């Protein structure tokens, strides 16, 4: 079974630039998550989709971050404009069912550096 | 107060030793608990779920203490390959939100 795919793996941008990350979850997984993991911290949930609907985006900085999951499969996360504090690893995860009901599988992450 | 707190460590132990560490959670409505393992510069992977009665998976034992609101992970007969960061994850029952701790780093030396 193919795992969660993410691209790019690394990205370096200057502050105030825009960046987009892509995630392809495991086939058949209804729930997709985007996490931000800052060095030395645990992953922080940014947004959770159930199929193509948003379930939870309470911790998404909506003035600069946006995400979509068209057709309930792939997802993109965008930052516009980026700030220095956005430097982190952005992890995508998927699960067959909702949180706690089935295992979350994480992708390898995109390491973002904002200079 | 953070929702999930962990001793960051690092716990440096020799091969073959036993190491144990705890995770405390603040929300009494928490209903499900998990331990994830994260290797350096890798993604987290589920190690084990934690059941009310405690559970064991090979050399790993997880315990839940609801009264004191903590879970623990014990690793017996440590291997070099156990070196990683162990993330405590808590699911709240009221809104089904998952919260991750910052992780406990374990280093097993030869």
Care to describe what's here?
The complex is a heterodimer of chains A (115) and B (110). Chain A has 115 residues and is mostly beta strands. Chain A is built from no helices and 11 strands. Chain A is globular, with a radius of gyration of 13 Å. Chain B is mostly beta strands and 110 residues long. Helices cover 0% and strands 57% of the residues of chain B. Chain B has strands at 4-6, 11-14, 19-25, 30-38, 44-50, 55-57, 60-65, 70-75, 84-92, 98-100, 104-109. Classes of the chains: A mainly beta (115), B mainly beta (110). The A-B interface holds A 40-45, 56, 91, 98-100, 103-104, 106-109 and B 4, 8, 31-32, 42-46, 87, 91, 95-98, 100-103.
Q: What oligomeric state do these chains adopt?
A: heterodimer
Tally the helices of chain B: 0
Radius of gyration over C-alpha positions of chain A, nearest whole angstrom: 13 Å
Count the E strands of chain B: 11
> Greatest chain-chain interface?
A-B, 17 and 19 residues
The helical percent of chain A reads under 10%
H-E order of chain A: EEEEEEEEEEE
Structural class of chain B: mainly beta
In short:
Helix content of chain A is 0%, strand content 48%.
What is the topology?
The complex is a heterodimer of chains A (115) and B (110).
Chain A: E1 5-7, E2 10-13, E3 19-24, E4 31-37, E5 44-50, E6 53-56, E7 65-68, E8 75-79, E9 88-95, E10 105-106, E11 110-114
Parallel strand pairs in A: 2-11
Antiparallel strand pairs in A: 1-3, 3-8, 4-5, 4-9, 5-6, 7-8, 9-10, 9-11
Chain B: E1 4-6, E2 11-14, E3 19-25, E4 30-38, E5 44-50, E6 55-57, E7 60-65, E8 70-75, E9 84-92, E10 98-100, E11 104-109
Parallel strand pairs in B: 2-11
Antiparallel strand pairs in B: 1-3, 3-8, 4-5, 4-9, 6-7, 7-8, 9-10, 9-11
Notable traits:
heterodimer; A: 115 residues; mainly beta; seven-stranded mixed sheet; four-stranded antiparallel sheet; 11 strands; globular; B: 110 residues; six-stranded mixed sheet; 0% helix
């Amino acid at each position: 079974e193919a795992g969660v795919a993410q691209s790019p793996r690394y990205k370096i941008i200057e502050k105030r630039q825009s960046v987009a990350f892509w995630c392809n979850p495991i086939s058949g997984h209804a729930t997709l998550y985007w996490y931000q993991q800052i060095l030395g911290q645990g992953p922080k949930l940014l947004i959770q989709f159930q199929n193509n609907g948003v379930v939870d985006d309470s911790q998404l900085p909506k003035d600069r971050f946006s995400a979509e999951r068209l057709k309930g499969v792939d997802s993109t996360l965008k930052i516009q404009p980026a700030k220095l504090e956005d430097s982190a690893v952005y992890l995508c995860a998927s699960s067959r069912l909702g949180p706690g009901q089935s295992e979350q599988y994480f992708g390898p992450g995109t390491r973002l550096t904002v200079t | 107060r953070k929702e999930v707190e962990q001793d960051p460590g690092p716990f440096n132990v020799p091969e073959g030793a036993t190491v144990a560490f705890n995770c405390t959670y603040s929300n009494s409505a928490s209903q499900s608990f998990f331990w994830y393992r994260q290797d350096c510069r890798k993604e987290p992977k589920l190690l084990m779920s934690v059941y009310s009665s405690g559970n064991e998976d090979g050399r790993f034992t997880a315990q839940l203490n609801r009264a004191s609101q903590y879970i623990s992970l014990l690793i017996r007969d440590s291997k070099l390959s156990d070196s990683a960061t162990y993330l405590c994850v808590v699911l709240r029952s009221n809104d089904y939100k998952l919260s991750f701790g910052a992780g406990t780093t374990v280093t097993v030396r030869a």
